[in-house]
Every structure is written in C-alpha cells, then in structure tokens.
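Supplementary notes for students who missed Thursday's class. We covered one full example, reproduced here. Read the sequence, then the structure, then the short commentary at the end.
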Amino acid sequence: MITKHLRHCLLPLAAALAMTTSVATQADTTYKVIGQPAATGLVQKNKEKPFFDNFAERTGLPINADYKPVDQLGIKDTEQLRIMKAGLFDIVSLRVSQNSRDEPTLLGLDLVGVSPDYATARKVYEAYFDTLDERLQKQFQIKLLGAWPFGPQILFCKKPISELADLKGMKVRVYDQNLAKFIESVGGVPVPLGFTEVHQALSLGVVDCAITGPSSANSSGWPEVTTHQYPLGFQMAVNGYAISMKAWNKLTPEEQGKMLAAFTELTDDIWTYSEELTQDAMNCNAGQEPCVNGKKFNLANVPVSDKDQETLSTAVQAISVPTWAEICDKANPQCSTNWKNTVGKVVGIQ
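Structure (token representation):
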C-alpha cells in the first residue's frame, strides 16, 4: 500500500519520467545526412562531423542525425542533387562545383577569378544566397541553409612550374566546367577527376598537376606525389548545406528559425576556421613554420607573378562569366541576369 508521503514523492518522479519519455519520443526523428568526403580533411573532421554528431544539442531540436561522409557511402559527390531530389536523404553537405553539371546556377557562387579572397567570397555568397535558394527549392525540392569555403584552390604539380604558361601541354585535374575552360585558355589539358581519385592519378602520371585547397591537399597527402605548389587562387571551393523541403516543411516556424540559426553559427565558424587552415597548410606543405594543424612536407612554394594575377583577373569577364552564362541560361533562362543583378553589383561586373 502506497503511503501518502510516498505518493507525494512518486508524483514528481512520474511527471519527470513522463516528460523524459515525451522528449525521447520526439527525439526519435533522425535525419539521414550526406557529409563532405572524409578525405578532404580538417573542416569535415573538426567542424562538420561534430556538429552532426551533436545535432539535437546544436540545433535545440529533438532531432538526431545519421551522418556519413559521401566517400563512405559509395555515392559520387557529383550525384548529390539527384539523390536529394529522390528523397533518399534529409540534409546534404553540398559539393557546389561538383554538382554544377546538374544545376549550373550553383556555380554562380564560385566562378573562376571572381573571389580572389575570403572577404570578396563572403560578399558574393551573401548577395547570391536568396537567388540560389529559390532555384534549389524549385528544381530539386531542397532549401539552402548556408555555405562556406574550403579556401583558395591552388595548383599542385609534380613537374617544375614557375607560371601559368608552364601548364602548356600538361594534364591538370579540374572539378568543374568553368575551371576546365580557364585551364584550356592557358594551354593546359583539363582532366575532370573526383577528389578521392587524385592522389593515385598524380602518382601514376595520369595528371601532371591538380587543383585543390592547401589544407585538403595536406590532409590527403598530395605533397607526397607532387613537388611544387603555386598559390594562385582560382576559386574558393564553396560548399553548402541544404535540407529537403519535405523535412523542412515538417518543422514549425519556430523550429525552422532554430535550424537556420544553428547552421548560420556553423558556417560562420567554418569561414573563420578555413582562413586559418589555409595559411597554416601553405606553411606545412612547404616545410615552414608555423605549421600547427598539418603534416610537414617539402614542396617548392612558387611566388605568384603579377602577370598571372592579371591573367586570372582578366579571365573573369573574358572567359568565366560568358562561358558559364551560356551554359546556365540554357537550363535557367534568367540565370546570368539574376547573377548580374546580385553578385555582379558586388564585384563590378555587368
């Protein structure tokens, strides 16, 4: 028989258990998440993965995340939009350039030569966000939650290089059409390759040079199979986070606000972290100090010539924008007009 005193003790406990059970039931929602390739390194390892591993805590929502890097799922990073449209995942860490064949509008975030530094890249992103979000919702039923850069995408070569002209006849790994067109313009032979294929391709001589960020190159051991790094930043390798509209529409307006706030905090953090990693990795790749986060190698760090800076700058209006606009306008008739009305105003291109 339960005494009056014991009943008074048990009632709060029962209420607490009921509340715990209720929260636990709510937390049974689990999002399936496609992450960045683990091979890309420290942004994925130290920022992205911890965020999704602690998703409920970071968002303040009773939702867990089943997070897996794309290179561990057996999915090509060029197929992310199609997979999201098919409803197979709830959130994707979207590889922007790699998916631009399926949606050329994406590449407006990161055209060759448009963003020579982090500050400009941030302005481009903020100017273009709403335009890109609207397009992704319409075409692929996903909503953009935020974007961030890996950092300047530079050249790594296994043959001596002192300027862009040295690329003549060399096979160069690229990851989108815009970059391929630029490499062609300086005499190189563009070879499209997924990131995880590059180390072996360099080792076997399938390509002579490859383009990526200094930190990603360091994490994946590219300096083991190259001799020179040329820090001319072609693009910023912007990547985004997007949620399926099906999952988004199940959230209340308040929950949507919490979700957006969490991803804004994450992407802001990565913007800062990316800039720190880039300089550190440049030092590490060349065997210089300070080298805090990466592994030391001994690449020749080739100074960028003023001539090559000018070549890249000139290419924006001569190659990057018109090449992209022709492709994008076929898929999305207002594509280049929308870009010029947003990004174009920020970077002075009309």
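Commentary. Residues 26-150+237-278 form a domain with the D-Maltodextrin-Binding Protein; domain 2 fold (CATH 3.40.190.170). The longest strand covers residues 142-149. If anything here is unclear, bring it to office hours.
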